[in-house]
Amino acid sequence: MNIEIYNLSKSYKTTRALQEVSFQIPGGVFGLLGPNGAGKTTLMRILATLLLPSAGKVRVGDWDVTRQPNEVRRHLGYLPQEFGFFGNLTAFEMLDYIAAMKGVPRNQRKTAIESALVSVGLEDRARQNIRTYSGGMKQRLGIAQALLGDPSLLIVDEPTAGLDPEERIRFRGIMGQLGSQHTVLLSTHIVADIEASCDRVAVLQRGRVVFNGTPAGLAAIAQGRVWDVELDQAEWTALQSRYHLISSRPQNGHVHLRLVGTENPLGRGTPRSPGVEDGYVALISNDNQFVEVEHA
């Protein structure tokens, strides 16, 4: 399902959460990346028909989000950043309740629920009370409820925030599998989720799109600007205002650093091939400098 966003803006009194946002989502897994407060959740809520824009237009397939919200909802599965379940119900009971609210016919619910649970790896826990679930299992159950009704579009907001590494890796695998059958819009501030799961990505900063392209294109922004270097603490203190830190670890009384910057640190750095995180840091660190949108 194709998603088209044209000159979308949203204001809250004196705050402009979105400013003339435009891009298209052709299908697969599309990532929406940006720091906290960039406008990601506002955009997701507009796409999910939960919030009206101040200006602009959004089309989901053949339907206008503002004028035809009920049609959009029939083709939509949504996992918000914050959600809850009734802990005293089993996963199957909870999904049966949600399926009924979504209008899934009674004679189709069992099959729909079982299919959704298999998709997220919870089929063996279907009769277990939700209050016994881990945080990662609850997130996967959240995806399962979004799959009920066989939606064409899945909107998933910050699904891996707070998860342990094992559950985060599992979640990325689920996103990749779902992208072969649905259009998935994945909002996150965790760059590794984008790198692992997404075909394309848009970066929001201060309510504007500052990049739209492939993860490889985002990484390329930092080409020739990524360095590994070992410094003592005094040297790093003197240099840190000129570089953006990607990672650091103590090593033999010094600190081993991965940095993004235009110059080789003290002439001792080893140049490295950039990753998506390097490109993202290079992009958003250019305050108010918006890069050419990549369409390739």
Please characterize this protein's 3D structure.
The protein has 296 residues and is of the alpha/beta class. It folds into two domains: 3-214, Rossmann fold (3-Layer(aba) Sandwich); 224-273. It is built from ten helices and 14 strands. The strands form three sheets. Strands 6-7-8-3-9-10 form a six-stranded mixed beta sheet, with helices on both faces. A hairpin with a 2-residue loop joins strand 12 (244-251) and strand 13. Helix 3 (91-102) crosses helix 4. The chain is globular.
Q: What number is the mean pLDDT?
A: 91
The largest sheet, given as strand count, sense and whether it forms a barrel, is:
6 strands, mixed
Radius of gyration: 21 Å
Span from first to last CA? Answer: 20 Å
Number of helices: 10
Number of strands: 14
SSE topology string: EEEHEEHEHHHEHEHEEHEHEEEH
The CATH architecture assignment of the largest domain turns out to be 3-Layer(aba) Sandwich
| Overall shape | globular
CATH fold field value of the largest domain:
Rossmann fold
Structure class: alpha/beta
**Total domains, how many?**
2
Helix share bin: 25-40%
